[in-house]
Amino acid sequence: MKPDVVALLALAVLTLPACSSPPAKAKAPVALHAGVAEDGQRVFGQCRSCHAIGAGVNGVGPSLHAVVGRTAGSLPDYTYSKAMKAAGVVWTEEALQDYLENPRAHVPGTKMTFAGLDDEQDRRDVVAYLKTLS
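User: That's the sequence. What structure does it adopt?
Assistant: Structure tokens below.
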């Protein structure tokens, strides 16, 4: 090879890394904290149009008083959908968080028309608030 061609090839090889993009920085995970009941009470404002928090007080949706630990579809004075009665779900903290993300996906056929809470921290906060209602 001619010296000029070798020099050009060497220059191309040495400058090639400068043409590439820098490696993408990994996104830092969002630090989630345990649910905060006070924040959950604020987020729960979206739920108040259908749900009451008093014992035995139902609205469009059932009372959420003492919902944590309760079996879905079990209040005797509320007319649940067949799907909710048959769901067999116990409202643990985890089950509530899953349900609140997308109610219709977790209990297909539910009467609940709420689309869900996209933000995981909001869901944690609402569950923390619901835990105080017993």
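The helical segments are 3-19, 37-43, 82-86, 93-101, 103-106, 120-131.
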